[in-house]
Description:
The complex is a heterodimer of chains A (110) and B (643). Chain A is mainly alpha-helical.
Amino acid sequence: MNSTLHLVQQEVPLAWYLLLSAVLFCLGVVGFLIKRNLITVFMSIELMLNAVNLSFVTFAHQWHDVKGQIFVFFVMMVAAAEAAVGLAIIIAVFRARATLAVDRIDLMKL
Amino acid sequence: MNVNLHLWLIPLLPFAGFLFNGVLGRRLPKAIVTAVALLAPLASLGVVLNAVLASTSSAILPVTETCPLRWIDAGSLHVNFSFVLDQLSLVMLLVVTGVGFIIHVYSVGYMSHEDGYWRFFSYMNLFMFFMTVLVLAGNALLMFVGWEGVGLASYLLIGFYFQRQSAADAGKKAFIVNRIGDFGFLIGLFLLLANFGTLTFSEIAARLAANPGWTGGILTAIALCLLVGATGKSAQLPLYVWLPDAMEGPTPVSALIHAATMVTAGVYMIARTHFLFDRSPFALSVVAIVGAATALFAATIGLVQNDIKRVLAYSTISQLGYMFLACGVAAYSAAIFHLMTHAFFKALLFLAAGSVIHALGGEQDLRKMGGLRKHIPITFWTMTAAVFAIAGFFPFAGFFSKDAILYAAFLQGSGGKMLWFVGLVTALLTSFYMFRLWYLAFMGESRSRDVHPHESPWSMLGPLVILALLSVSGGWIGISRFGAYLAPSVGAREGEGGSFQLEVLLGILAVAVAAIGWFIADRFYRQRPESPAQLAASVPAGYKLLANKYYADEIYRATLVRPLLAISKFVLEWVVDVAILGGIAWLLAGIATFGGAILQRWQSGNLRSYAAWLALGAAALLLFVLFPHVWGASGIDIKLAGH
């Protein structure tokens, strides 16, 4: 076992990482729910994704399993793609409707 | 001996005619429709005549032809498309295709100005198809197919002028009343199947022949069920009410279906299943009583009717009663003999009446006729032959067959004497009302205004002349030869104490009675034309009773139709349909609508509300998964912090 990592683990308990992850995730959720600007909502999604990434890394470290870190790469890759597509959609929406208020983009219903 | 008579062509040729005219007739010129419509029954007649020739040159009857394809093959039940040609079906086929073809020819002239010419002839060919299936059927189920089919053709043709409410109603009435009879027939079929395990006539007959002691009981039940079917189709009491109304159809239809062929199907069916009736004296006496009662009942109504076709309709019912009477005394060959001669003279009567109606431009009321003798002589003379035939004058056809029936009834013990007497009274009434019609239509002065009667075209007169010749000579074959010919099919009647002298005596008596009827009609309608009204005025109650046909329709309406309609309305429509079925449907629809209205609110289109539901769902899922661990028996503590 790597002694440096062991030292870090000693200094900051695992639960703290997880708590931080949970707090970040909840901030993302709340931001998603209460913010009206589409870009802010979009950023909230990124926040949630990264909160999850933090948990992945934490658990990977805890269980000495590299799979969690691999998952993080996947998530980052998807997030990057999503950012590209999402921002494009946002620009298209703004051009079409001249607004980014989420409450007014409500035509996608039956 | 093995000969191929191609019996299957007899029904299928008219069916091909029906399909051709029914599908293409609307777009084709009249000449082609006519040619197809006439050739189909003519070809059938040719096949029948070929069979007649083949069967007279050598004794080949009965011939059975079975379609190689099984029709029904379920468990122990096997039913084939099998046609049987024996003496009985051969005679019947001759009548059906022969008279049928003649009436087709007549219809060409009669219907030439009508709309729906092609429709008329396709229906007529359809009728010929089903009627020949009925006659040829080798088993009771195939016969039932023909039986229902002629009912359908009858319904279509009665309602031919369907724009007229009365015609449409008459069609429905005929169909519904026949349905009651058919119900009896069906139950009879089920009983046959349950007790014999087969519906093939020859097998049933063989089974009965193997058990000579088997009488009464279930056989009586089967025979009575079949009788119910026969009373419906052959317009006997109490199911006769549809036939007078069936006169709403075109006159050739009345002649072919409602006089000559279809209505005699009941008589044919009883003769065909005579081996069942022979084993049940009770059922036979019911048949005889129904027949005699109908004969007398319908004849009395016929006395006072003023519509020329209705007089003939009631006379048809009455004559069918004679045939039932003959069946009831087990004189099946006499019944078929009368069926044949009746087909000749009654078809002639209807066709001549049609010629009269045609001449007067649609007038059917006898009170507005008169004096037609000079204007339409050929119709007059052919009609005269038919009137003498039905009244039973020697040597016209009706004399021989009616005499055979009365003679057979007379020999049937003491009850038979009663039947004979009823038959004799009916003969008197028949003679009277037929000569009444004759005098009112043809004699005296014209009572119609500004109508110039014209003789019909030869396509109509030709059939009249042919049928007139048959009405005169159709009975000359004599019942003894006819009975001997039919004996292999319907069994021979043993002579029970009859003698030639007795037969001659009864014959003279019958002719005397017919002459009395003529004499009374002559007195009433030629010598003193005012006397019928005086007689009617002197017994107003009796006259009204007859003129209103014993109020039979009113009684049926009050006791059967109204209650049935009321039950249909209240129980079936309101309770079952509206309340139960409709209620369930409304309930289901209501749940769906209500649920939809609520669920619809979720689909707001608002992104954040979707997200909120998503988050709530995720939270709920998480709670569901973690609940036992968090608040449960402290299974896994979240002691991830250290170890």
